[in-house]
Write a structure and sequence with these properties.
mainly alpha, Urease accessory protein UreF
Length: 225
């Protein structure tokens, strides 16, 4: 067992204190509206976002960020961080990534063994997105990019499934069946993301954007996004 694997498991842990559990990324509104109502529709909603949105935008962007951190290319990091923030479709989604980015930077600082130059670079940004902070940790801990992308996509999927369990609601076995189906797609999505050039990236998901915007004014809700 390598140290990189242990560090990757730490980044993937639900115990990572960044507040991911408090967000549903519009899923709560999709449940309220009736688009997501059971195990099958939960798998469709989460699976489509995983493959066509996160797999084609966040994952390739994360791979570029890891590479930029490894080369200490601060200009590229700033550009990618700004690009990601500009891609957030709603105020909730932007606030979410900034809050989680801030929390992860604070944690890395408190751990005491994180490279000072990477912390300084994150501080300079002022508004470090969660992918920018997470990729800094992946690069500093020498985590292979393909493994990092697979885990990034897994943790996002797990968080959305947990939100569905609470809000649909679904049973634990249903949640595990959804995760089993999503997990089978991850290796291919991660490999594809590593090969995508920036001009082919796409986060076009109108239903997701509408759900996120509508959630901002949803009358009763459990989640922050």
């Amino acid at each position: 067992m390598s140290l990189a694997l242990a560090r990757l498991l730490q980044l993937a842990s639900p115990a990572l204190p960044v507040g991911a559990f408090s967000y549903s990324q519009g899923l709560e509104w999709a449940i309220e509206e009736g688009t997501v109502r059971d195990e099958a529709s939960s798998l469709v909603w989460i699976g489509d976002l995983l493959e066509h949105n996160h797999g084609r935008f966040e994952a390739p962007l994360l791979a570029r960020l890891i590479d930029a951190w490894s080369r200490e290319d601060l200009d590229a990091i700033r550009e990618l961080n700004g690009f990601y923030l500009a891609s957030r479709e709603s105020a909730e989604l932007r606030a979410e990534t900034l809050q989680m980015g801030y929390s992860l930077v604070r944690l890395l600082r408190e751990l005491g063994d994180f490279p000072a130059n990477k912390l300084a670079a994150l501080d300079v940004h002022g508004e470090a997105s969660f992918p920018a902070a997470w990729s800094a940790a992946a690069a500093a801990w020498n985590i292979p990019p393909e493994d990092a992308l697979t885990v990034w996509l897994w943790t996002w999927s797990e968080n959305l499934v947990m939100a569905a369990l609470k809000a649909v609601p679904l049973g634990q076995s249903a949640g595990q069946r959804i995760l089993l189906a999503l997990g089978a797609r991850l290796p291919a999505i991660a490999q594809s993301a590593l090969a995508l050039e920036p001009e082919t990236w796409s986060n076009l998901a109108p239903g997701f954007a509408i759900a996120s915007c509508r959630h901002e004014t949803q009358y009763s809700r459990l989640f922050r996004s």
